[in-house]
Structure formats: structure tokens, C-alpha cells
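User: Hi! I'm working on a homework problem where we have to compare a predicted structure to a textbook description. Could you give me the structure for the chain below?
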Amino acid sequence: RYQRRVHGVEQATETALKEMQEQRIAGQGVTPFLLKRVAELTQGESLEANINLIINNSKVGAQIAVELSKRSAPWPLSPLPRTSRMAVLAGCFALSAFLCWRLIRL
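Assistant: Happy to help. Predicted C-alpha cells:
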């Protein structure tokens, strides 16, 4: 089933790229067109996969933030207590993930 999904997304991507070229879409219009068209062609499966990828990336980012906050070496937020540094970094990753998610939803 997974292989079929991957193949379907690959086919949808190829189709969307061909349509994009035929319609002469370029510049800032490329990414929104491709995301929307591939989501349409896969009946939402690619959108679900992208959202899951963003969620996973934000989890990994938060884990990185936790590990970075444990370092004793000075860095830009070093005047803050360790727990505050961790919260700031986790917040940055969460905000980044939210903004990516909003872009996909456009």
C-alpha cells in the first residue's frame, strides 16, 4: 500500500510539473500551484503527508532545542536561564512549523 501511495504522489508530481510548464507558471506561482495540484491529484494524500512531515520536523526541532539548551557554551540567549532558553528555541521551531502548515493550507 505504501509503495502505491509513493508511486501515486510521484505520478501526480510529474503531471503537475507538466501542467505547470504548459500553463507557463513561473516564479512565486510555482510552489503554490504544485502543492495545490498534487493535493488535488492525490485526493489529499500528499497534503496529509506534508502536514505529517511538518509535525515530525517540529518534534525533531524541539528535541534539538532541548539538547542545545543543555549546552554550557555561551550563545546568543546565554543570559537567560536554561529552561527559558529551551522554551525560546522550542517556540521558534513551533512557530516555524505553524507557518509552514499555513502555507500548505493556502
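For your comparison, note the following. The radius of gyration is 19 Å. The first helix runs from residue 2 to 22. Good luck with the assignment!
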